[in-house]
Design brief:
about 400 residues, 13 strands, MacB_PCD, elongated, 11 helices, transmembrane helix, ABC transporter permease, transmembrane, 6-stranded mixed barrel, membrane
Length: about 400
């Protein structure tokens, strides 16, 4: 039988009456439990938000994007496209010409972000789950179509079933003095709206159109593009393909993964998660300090018991382990309860979504959560370290109380 553990359990569970010290111990246990539960839940919510953003970006952005380091367009001749297509791991290569333009439909006008893409863009099947109305179509029987975002549809009151009213895209001509009264100051293209998609508010001003239409509107040369978007083959490693593409392109062009394009957002989420974790850790630390005070008062209360143990032959190490075990019982009981409750809340939220976002325009109804074993492990290690630190000094004081 482990005598220090047995005595510690007797001190905590088998008191004949509840004293102030025992109630302080229970309060400490509850504080550690609530702090641990909150830390698990909050970290899981940040993990869920991170995963949600990755899913959103994956719906519209390519796995790898090639763009110029300087300026906004570059030449992509067929020979270069062929070399890039032959890189191991590349599945689809899409040429893109993108810029801001003016959209006009019936009596409405708005600024749009026109994205001209190759015919193989729809083979990526990214917008299949985001289509709200109409169909995904860019060109058929010599007719040029457009796929507009929900925000553009609302601003211009567009109806995809109305094939008689075209969407007019206007772009300032280079070399012309800008004037809304000068009809020759703009290039114009007419498109039939085929479908409407919605992903997230940051993409609400996009209009997808055939690449040839965008090049004509922007007065680009036949091989000029603003970027090249690459969809990888299943199982291909992004970093390996990125390095291979960079070796083909040299130093004038920039090769970026989807995470590289959104690194600022991911960094902001990580920093916010870190500061929230530190704040909740201080709450757990405050609860652990209560363990320090409860153990210190318990040492004073049990001073006569300690003297009896020394008289019976107990060593300093044994007495120290009694109070370290007492602190561990208080903290670990609370931590284990908090971990179980935190995991249960996260699983219930993921299954039933009972905590709602509270905004009508949100793309999801409930807060996203994702449990990460590393977060649970780090939380457990944090509680253990705080328990040892706050329990050590009262236990050492008890061990040194031998007369």
């Amino acid at each position: 039988m482990n005598l220090p553990a047995w005595i510690a359990r007797r001190y905590f569970f088998s008191r004949k009456k509840r004293s102030f010290i025992s109630w302080l111990s229970i309060l400490s246990m509850l504080g550690v439990g609530v702090g641990t539960m909150a830390l698990v839940v909050v970290l899981s919510v940040f993990n869920g938000m991170d995963e949600l953003n990755r899913q959103i970006f994956k719906t519209f952005e390519a796995d790898i994007t090639i763009s110029p380091k300087q300026g906004k367009r570059f030449l992509a001749p067929p020979a270069l496209l062929t070399r890039l297509q032959q890189v191991s791991g590349v599945h689809l290569l899409t040429s893109v010409a993108q810029d801001n333009a003016l959209g006009r439909y019936a009596n409405g006008t708005t600024v749009v972000k026109l994205k001209g893409v190759d015919d193989n863009y729809l083979q990526r099947q990214q917008l299949d789950s985001a289509l709200l109305e109409g169909k995904l179509l860019l060109r058929r029987n010599g007719v040029n179509y457009a796929i507009v975002a929900e925000g553009v549809r609302n601003d211009l009151s567009i109806s995809p079933v109305d094939i008689l009213t075209p969407l007019e895209i206007l772009y300032p001509q280079s070399g012309q003095s800008f004037s809304v009264l000068n009809p020759d100051a703009f290039n114009r293209e007419l498109l039939t709206v085929a479908g409407v998609f919605f992903i997230e508010s940051r993409y609400d001003n996009f209009v997808l159109a055939p690449l040839a239409v965008a090049r004509s509107l922007f007065s680009y040369k036949p091989d000029e593009v603003t970027s090249l978007e690459i969809q990888l083959q299943p199982g291909a490693k992004e970093q390996v393909v990125k390095q291979a593409l960079q070796a083909v392109l040299g130093d004038k062009l920039l090769v970026q993964t989807r995470d590289d394009l959104n690194v600022d957002l991911y960094r902001a989420i990580y920093i916010e998660k870190l500061f929230v974790a530190l704040t909740l850790s201080f709450i757990i630390l405050v609860a652990s300090i209560n363990i320090f005070f409860s153990l210190s008062m318990l040492v004073i209360e049990k001073k006569s018991d300690i003297q009896i143990l020394f008289a019976l032959g107990a060593t300093k190490s044994m007495v120290r382990r009694i109070f370290l075990t007492e602190g561990a019982i208080i903290a670990l009981t609370g931590a284990f309860t908090g971990l179980v409750l935190g995991v249960f809340i996260c699983l219930a939220q993921g299954q039933y979504g009972f905590i709602r976002m509270g905004t009508v325009s949100s793309i999801i109804d409930a807060y996203p959560v994702r449990l990460d074993v590393r977060d649970i492990a780090l939380t457990s290690i944090l509680v253990v370290l705080m328990t040892v630190l706050t329990s050590w000094f009262p236990a050492q004081r008890a061990a040194n109380s031998q007369q």
